[in-house]
Each structure stands twice: as structure tokens, then as C-alpha cells.
Amino acid sequence: MTLSLALEARDLAQLPSRRDEDWRWTDLRGLIRELPAPSPEAEASPAGPFEGHGDSELLVVNGRLQGDVGLLILGDGQRRVLRLRLVSASPGTAHAVRLSIQLGSGAELTLLETHEGQAEGYLADSHLSVSLSTGARLERIVLADDEAEAISVSTAEVRLEAGAEFCQTILTHGARRQRLETRVEHPGQAAKVRMDGAYLVSGRRHADLTTAVTHGGTDGVTGQLIKGVVADQGRGVFQGRITVSPGADRTDARMGHHALLLSDRAEVNAKPELLIFADDVACAHGATVGALDEDALFYAQQRGMPEAVAKALLTEAFIGEVIDRIEHDGAREIAHAWAADRQVG
Amino acid sequence: MMLSITNLHARVEAAEILKGLSLELPAGEVHAIMGPNGAGKSTLSYVLTGRQGYEVTEGTATLDGEDLLALEAHERAARGVFLSFQYPLEIPGVPAMTFLRTALNAQHKARGEPEVSATDFLKRAREVAKQLKMDFDMLKRPLNVGFSGGEKKRMEIFQMAMLSPRLLILDETDSGLDIDALKIVADGVNALRSPDRAMLVITHYQRLLDYIRPDRVHVLAAGRIAASGGPELALELERDGYDKYARAA
């Protein structure tokens, strides 16, 4: 049951619903009463948020690739910085796209991915398959900038070989309903994964960050830091599952999820899961949900900051810890500015 | 009169902590508030600075004749009220310089003054840090995170010097300081003494007053001023303790 299946078959019954355990907090069947018409061809505004960074751009408007194929292959040892823009440009219509990225041995890619809502109330699905050969490296940075009434689902499936490295930072401020899901096949064998994310949600927006990593071999490392700030009637969802398969000894997996609730009606649903079937592992997770520290807030106000300024400073710092882990300098700066512009509360 | 407090009553949740406190603090003077634990010393500092949860039920407090209690915390700060915290907060992710420049510019905005440029701010920060014998790199680190007790208090004085407030409230500034740190902090405070500033030095022990000499000393016991006098009152308290005031209350 997926959104893309439902769109392809024009069948509402294919939508995931709250009866599906993995979708219980991000119900689509209850929300989508009618499938909208397919999105037409359209133009996107010329420059995305990462304009000026990277050496090439892959532009997808309303699920249609502009002058390119949906497959990017980097040969052994190649290095690139690529902008991937997924633009939704027509109101009240639906589209889906599938893309693949293959990195050869030792290849390095920085993927600057943006989800750009340039119309109201669209329905968008994207699916990205990634494979990293031995020693390849991918840093994926996603700015999910969907429109408030949009429904969007984005799924990435990542497969690593020995010694490969996958680093990801997803920043989102949600949509009417939005899910950003990442699934990683982790072979161990000195492969490394960092899977971070932050959600800044206000109004009636909903953001769901779901991740699943399966360690299949020994000596794998996974680190994850997710932070969220939710205001008004917004809702944040984090589902993080790390599975350590039998025999995947000396796995090192650490997960952290921390959220701030800025209003009485804000909501966070979190389900951190560590499923460990090997003996010799170092695994840990920490999860906190709370309000802004009243003492810190008063301290800032006593120094002269109005409440709104003090809150913005403190929440920006809270989210900043995630953004600081982005390695690409230019992207890190843009991400900081992006988050500051979408301050909630 | 710079600060004028009349018959102030205040409660925290259900408990009445201040029970008719009156105090006059003229510009140019330093007054010490001494008292046993639980007398209401910290409550007084929070009531004057507008912390939420501290409810004034009776009485007045004015700054240069303006009703202080009607203003929000940040508005009081912009009028020149500064509280040096007994336990300064750690603010992860916010460099001290960023925090302070945001605060300073918020105050300027509230007063209708132009913003301070990054260059001017930096220049002034370097001067003040030098006066306080602070390592300038400390100011680039997240505010107070991982700082020792002495470093945190020095950072309070640094902020005080940068914001140049008119009414300074020092809440137990000596707590957690060794004698060397105490001298540096006291020097920093003394450097800010001026005819158009007033200071309220809240302390449990007389020790701090050897370094910051008060013009007047008030004994706060059971929520009101139980006695007032010159600097000799602090020495008497050091010798005899607070027993007689606690009993009288």
C-alpha cells in the first residue's frame, strides 16, 4: 500500500491507512477522499534554494524529468555535487516520480535535494533508489518545502556496500500531511550511516520522518540525531527503527530524538525501535519531548529580548545542532537560513 | 528616587513570600540586602525583573517614577534593569556574542535607538573582555556551557558592562567564587559604580561587602525589611547572625 500505487492504479484502496502499523500516525486513506487529476506539464521558477551551489541540476516538475533520464550513474572515483529539484507547480493535481542513483567504487556525490511546493493543495510522491559501491560516499541534504495544504510522500531506499558512507540531513516544515521515509540496507563491514533530520511544524502542518536501517553484517556504524519543534496544532512524527541482524556483531548504533512542544495543542508521536538480534553490539537511544526551558527563556528576556525573539533564538539553537552536522559548507549555511526563515511559535 | 518600593507583597503559587517590603534606592548608591535563607531575597530580584509566576498582590515599585510592575521583563531590561543571576543559565547552541548582541539590539530597538553594528560591538566586547581579564575566545563559545562557576559570574559582569544598565541587581554574586574570582568580579562591579547608576547587592554573607562597599545595608527577614543601617550593620550580622531578626519575625 503506497501513495504511488494508488496514483498509478487510480485506486483509493491502495492508500496506506491508520490500520497499517507503519502509517498509524500518517493516515492517508482517511484524508484523501478523491484522487486528483494527474498534474499537467508545467514550468518551475528558475532558481531553487541551492542555486549557485553544485555543478549540475536535475529538475523534476510535476513528476516529469526535464531533459534528462531518471538515472544518475557516477563511475568509479568520480565526484559531483548535484542539485535535485522536485517541484510541484500545479494546484490540486497529483504526480509521482521514480529516480535512481548509482555510485561506483570510491565515487562521491553531494546531493542537494529540494521539494518545492509552488502551488496549493497538490499530491506528490517521489521514490529514490540509491546504491553505493565499495567505498562510495553520498551526502544527501533535503529541504522539504511543501505547501501547507499539500500531501506529499517521499521515500528513499539506500543500499550500501562495504566501506561505503551515507550521510543524510532532512529539514522539513511539513505539509497538510507529509512523510519523508528512508530505508537503508547496511552491510556492516566498516560502512557508515548518519541519518539526521529536523522538523519545524506550525499551523495545522504535519511532518513524519520515518527511518529504517538494517545492519546485516559486522562492524557497521549508524548515528542518528532528529530534532523537532512543533507549534500551534502542528504534529511531528518520528519513527526510527534500527535492526541488528543475527551475526551483525560489533555494530555501533546510536539514535536520538528530541522535540520541543510550543503550544498545548501541538503533538509529537515518536517510536524509536532498536531490534537487536546480535550479542556483541553497542546500541543506544534517547528520546525527549518537552517545552522550552522556562529559565532560559526568562534569562534571555531579562537581557532585553521580547518573548518572541527569545523563543526564536532558543529554538534556532536547538535545531542548529542538527544543521551543524551537515558537511557541505554552502548547504549548511543555506540550511541555517532556511530554518531561521521557518521559525515556528 | 531611582528605585522606590512601597509595601510590596508578592506570592509564588500559594505562598506569600514578600509581606510589605519597602525600600528607597537613590541613584549613585549601593545598597546591600542581607538575610537568612528563605527570607525572600531571590523573590525580590525576580519580582523586580518581571519573572512569570511571581505575583504581586499589593504595593508598588517604581523606577524613576515609572510603574515597574506594569512592564514586561524585556521592557524593564530596556529601561536599564539588569539582574546578575545567582545561577546563570547555560544556553547550548548560542554563542555568548550572538546572545548578547541580540539582547543589546533588542534593547536599542525598544528605546528607538539605532542598531549597534557588528564591528562596533566587537570592538567594545574586546575592550570589556580585556578589562575583566577574560579570554576573548570564551565569548565565541555557547553561552556559559561548560563554564566554571567563576567564569559564569564573570560572564554576567561582562554582559552587565556591555549593556550598561542603570539599576543593577546582583543576586548572590559571591556564591561559588573563590577569593581570586571574587576580587575580579568585584573589581568589575566597582568599575560600573557611577552617580547615575544604583546597585542592589543581595547576599547571604558579609564577605562580598568587603569588596563591594555598600552605602546602606538592609536586613530582609520574613518578607520585609527588618532593619536598615550603614556598613557596620553587615559586620554585626556577620558576628551575631540572623537569629534576632528571624525571631522577631
How many strands appear in the DSSP assignment of chain A?
A: 18
Question: What is the arithmetic mean of pLDDT of chain B?
Answer: 93
From the alpha-carbon coordinates, what is the Rg of chain B to the nearest angstrom?
18 Å
Give the helix level of chain A as a range of percent. Answer: 10-25%
Residue stretches of chain A low in confidence (pLDDT < 50, at least 5 long) are none
Strands across the major sheet of chain A, in which order? 2-1-4-6-8-10-12-14-16-18
Helical percentage of chain B: 25-40%
Strand content of chain A: over 45%
Count of the separate structural domains of chain A:
1
Can you give the mean pLDDT of chain A? Answer: 95
Number of domains of chain B: 1
Structural class category of chain A: mainly beta
Poorly predicted regions of chain B are none
The number of distinct helices of chain B, counting runs of at least 4 residues, comes to 8
Structure description:
The complex is a heterodimer of chains A (345) and B (249). With 345 residues, chain A is mainly β. Chain A has one domain. Chain A is built from 4 helices and 18 strands. Chain A has helices at residues 3-9, 294-302, 307-323, 329-341; strands at 56-61, 64-65, 71-74, 79-88, 94-103, 108-117, 123-132, 137-145, 151-160, 165-172, 177-186, 192-201, 206-215, 221-230, 235-244, 252-261, 267-276, 282-290. In chain A, the strands form 2 sheets. In chain A, strands 2-1-4-6-8-10-12-14-16-18 form a 10-stranded mixed sheet, with helices on one face. Chain A has an 8-stranded parallel sheet with strand order 3-5-7-9-11-13-15-17, covered by helices on one side. In chain A, a hairpin with a 2-residue loop joins strand 1 and strand 2. In chain A, helix 2 crosses helix 3 (307-323) and helix 3 (307-323) runs antiparallel to helix 4. Chain B has 249 residues and is α/β, with parallel strands linked by helices. Chain B has a single domain, classed as Rossmann fold. Chain B has helices at 41-49, 73-78, 96-110, 118-131, 149-163, 179-191, 232-240, 243-248; strands at 3-12, 15-25, 30-34, 54-63, 66-67, 81-84, 167-171, 198-203, 216-221, 224-229. Chain B has a 6-stranded mixed sheet, sandwiched between helices. In chain B, strands 2-1-4-5 form a 4-stranded antiparallel sheet. In chain B, helix 5 runs parallel beside helix 6 (179-191). Chain B is globular. The mean pLDDT of chain B is 93. The chains are: A mainly beta (345), B alpha/beta (249).
